[in-house]
Amino acid sequence: MKKKLFILTGESSGDKLASNIIPYLKNLNITAIGSEHIQKKGIKLIFNSKQISVMGFVDVLKKIFFLKKKINITINYLLKLKPDLIFSIDAPDFCFRIHKVIKKKLPKTKIIHLVAPTIWVWRENRVLVFRKFLDHLLLLFPFEVPLFTKWKMNNTYVGHPFFEKKIIYKKFSLDKKRKIISFCPGSRKSEIKTFMPIFASLIKKIDLKYPKCFSFHFPISKEHSKSIGQYLPLKISFFTSSDENRKNFYIKNSILSVAKSGTMSLDICKNKSPLITIYKTSWINYCLIKPFVKVKFANIVNIIANKEIIPELIQSKCNVLDIFSKMTIFLDSRTVRNLNVKNYQKIIKKITKKNSSREIAMVIKSYL
Q: What is the pTM of this model?
């Protein structure tokens, strides 16, 4: 009888990572909470992870009863399934609530989690809590190993799977008269509402300073692609991409990318586009979290480097005037753009392993 594996993801980034690992997990009975990338691998989903993708204290409060319902649905499903192993990726607020219950009621079920909670950012002693229900933690960054080892948490450094394979670029149409600027607002509806008005104002200013020089690219999911236009000025040259091949091609060919801090920043780094990071949350979220944060930066590249290699415009600095000022420095200087890419590529090499997905699969198989 095939061993039963349940994959649990709560973000689009986790869905992508899991889809890269699944090909190495043959001869297993796999079900999942995920999205289109896992589904394309022929895996049955109990529901789509986009339903539970929320960010920040306020957003969680708004959907708290819905999220509790989804947690209970997942727990009940797992109690019937009795999987040999649960493999979860990121989204600890959702995943760990499930793991606590399952480990008590199904103690023989092994639980492996990829993407460590950021105890190096705040509340290091949290590891004492999740060590009780996690059998193994898979780490993306080498600096995490001594920290989790110190707390006697079983761990393996596997590197970041995003960088293990080179991108094979398919060619798509380009407007030779206009250069591309990519704006990346994020994958959540709340993020689009926050960042699209800022991007719309930036586009107006760019179009005034550099008339008819640029077209504007928005890498966005299919479900949100139609809503982008409602934020933008009339007669503006813009286009969206939801297909991975198109996203990669247009980001690679962008003179500059401006992205909300998060996984998308790593996608942009992989495509070697000059990058500016922005981030803004509600002041309630910011005031609640800020006192506990131990790191200076938001972008993981800057955190690893311990200096601002990729410009960050966070919270009060995440405004049209400051972002536009930083953008013009990049748009006016090829030297600045090239140095930006060169510097962050040096850091990316430190978290790159050739066979991350295979290594992750090997750890999973070792527990089955």
A: 0.77
**What's the chain's average pLDDT?**
89
Those residues whose C-beta lies under 8 Å from the C-beta of residue 166, and which sit 6 or more positions away, are none
Q: Name the DSSP letter for residue 184.
A: E
Please state, in angstroms and rounded to a whole number, the distance separating the CA atoms of residues 132 and 112: 12
Per the DSSP assignment, residues forming a β-bridge with 257 are 182, 275
**H or E segment and range at residue 225:** helix 222-225
Per-residue pLDDT averaged across 236-255, rounded?
Answer: 92
**Is the Cβ–Cβ distance between 201 and 320 less than 8 Å?**
yes
Cβ distance 353 to 158 under 8 Å? Answer: yes
* Residue 248 C-alpha from the chain's centroid: 15
What residue spans define the domains of the chain? 3-164+353-366, 179-351
Judge if 3-164+353-366 and 179-351 fold alike in CATH terms.
yes
Angle at 176 between CA 171 and CA 178, to 5 degrees: 115
Which of 125-141 are b and which e, b meaning 16 or more Cβ less than 10 Å from the residue's Cβ? eebeebeebbbbbbbbb
List C-alpha distances in Å: 157 to 141, 161, 304, 345, 352: 7, 11, 15, 20, 11
In 3-state terms the chain splits into helix, strand, coil percentages (rounded to 5) of 50, 20, 30
CATH topology of domain 3-164+353-366: Rossmann fold (3.40.50)
In whole angstroms, give the CA distance from residue 188 to residue 199: 16
Are 312 and 261 in contact, with CB atoms under 8 Å apart? yes
Nearest CA to 277 out of 224, 315, 304 is that of: 315
**How does 104-115 read in b/e, with b if 16+ C-beta sit within 10 Å?**
eebeebbbbbbb
Q: What CATH fold (topology level) applies to the domain 179-351?
A: Rossmann fold (3.40.50)
Stated as kind and residue range, the H or E segment containing 145 is: helix 144-150
Structure tokens at 276: 């500016």
Q: What is the pLDDT of residues 103-122, one digit of tens each?
A: 999 999 999 999 998 876 66
Three-state secondary-structure class, residue 247: helix
Q: Is the per-residue pLDDT at 286 higher than 80?
A: no
